[in-house]
Amino acid sequence: MYNDYDGVQHDYTRKQGLVWEQVFLPPNAPAEWSDRSVLWNAVEESEKTKDSRLAREFVVALPIELGKEDWTEILSDFIQEQFVSDGMCADVAIHDTDGHNPHAHIMLTVRPLDEQGKWQYKTEKEYLCVKDGEERGFTAAEFKAAQNEGWEKLYQYKVGEKKEYLPPSQAEGLERVNKYPKSTKYGRQNPTTARWNSDEQLVLWRSAWADAVNRSLERSGIDERIDHRSNKDRGLDEIPTIHEGVAARAMEAKGIVADRCELNRQIKKDNALIRSLKATIQKLTKAFRDTLPGVADALESMRQTVILLCFHMNRTGRDSRNLRDRLQLYRKKLSDYFEIVGQIKEKSKERKAAQKEKQEAPMWRFQYKKELTTRIATLTEEIEELQSERKMLLDSMDCKDASEVPEIKKQADNLEKRLRALNQKTESLKQQRDSVLDQYDVAARDANNRFDPLAIYKARKEIRPKKEDEIKDKLLDYYGIDYSLFMLADSTQQARKLLDEEAEERWLERELRKQEKEQKMREGHQKNNHKRDDWGR
């Protein structure tokens, strides 16, 4: 493809993995735009500013269960219905370099086309006009009619020492600063462009893509489905994974642990934990029997789950604190480093100016040259001290030189992502814990209404040691050598407080002692009665 804008010939012929490509045009677009080189040169030509957006890109994952014909059919129908019918030109290509990640890049034009196939404006200048103290915006076309109604543009005039925007009718005798009338900062966006750029439209496009793929999967007799909604919108507690990318996958293939892949592995492990806990609760709810042993087992299993969730929250909280401390240290060192670099630049600039001034000063100003010499020497010492501090900071960050600082910044960004993932995990675990506590409260009240609380308490105490051993086994299996007995003790104590066990146990123990005392008294009375009977005989 030849770029008319900069005269560069772009060669993509060696790019691998191209499965299919096509250009889609609305009926009012010039036919020659079916050549993508002509199309994108036309787009480039229509933009005047250096930072203009030339295209909108969609990258969509294609279902691996389907084949090329299905992919092209899905894409063709989707692009025609959602983009081309709305006036966009679309350039699409399917890539599948390794046979495991089929996806499509859809490049869309961002300017609407008029009926003659000419580009429309993206934004139009909007002048702020005034009438009877009211301010309103008008485009150039609208202003002609508004002017007849008494609306005036605002211009900047010099009023004393200040500059103010005034209508010409109120600025007689004042000097106008410039010829440009007051206008809104970004102008008025084309309604079609505004709709295309809206978040609401993006959601509609994502929903339409999910529907298109699911219809194709259904036609092919495949049970799998995709969903465009986030986990939160779907009511799922699971933490979403992040995009790994080609570079991270390549590192992993070489045996190097990529931060993104490692983070995803941890997220998947955490999600498996959440699924396991939810499955346990569902199983317990179904297994809640009307028998006393079944009730006791269900309540102890819920207590076990609360302890496990408290442990995971404590562990995640500890990891979050450690990450936060590391991140703050990284940020502090980077901040100090860039501040020192800035000071070195400023002082070097000041020294250079002083050296130039000294060089250009006439010989007879020897006192002034002497002052400049002293100033240059002082600046040199300060720069050397700052360079020494910079070297110490680089050493503290394990950097050989300044070229490795961007890598430290990248590590700090990765730490921030991991911290966000841990915070999400903590919030999800908290929601799970609160849900279990609510279910436990309901189950405990129901059990106490149907059975003797003391009988339930005795049955639970009998099976509790076994349940606590199961907790240890589960945590050892999950954390391995990172398992902490002290953290388990803290988690158990937290669970006891959340379940209000201490107050309940004190009451039950009093009732149990009272019951035992009454039992002993009954046994004593029976023994005395037997003695009297024996004496009578």
Protein described:
- By secondary structure, this protein is an alpha+beta fold.
- It has three domains: 2-118 and 194-219, BirA Bifunctional Protein, domain 2; 123-189, no CATH class; 255-499, Helix Hairpins (Orthogonal Bundle).
- 60% of the residues lie in helices and 11% in strands.
- It contains 13 helices and 14 strands.
- It has helices spanning 36-46, 68-82, 140-148, 191-197, 199-219, 245-253, 259-287, 292-360, 366-396, 405-450, 453-479, 485-498, 501-536, and strands at residues 2-3, 8-9, 18-24, 56-61, 90-95, 103-108, 123-124, 126-131, 134-139, 152-153, 155-159, 162-166, 175-176, 188-189.
- It has a four-stranded antiparallel β-sheet, with helices on one face. The chain has a three-stranded antiparallel β-sheet with strand order 9-8-10, with helices on one face.
- β1 and β2 form a beta hairpin.
- The longest helix is centred in the middle third of the chain and has 69 residues, at 292-360.
- The radius of gyration is 37 Å and the shape is extended.
- The termini are far apart.
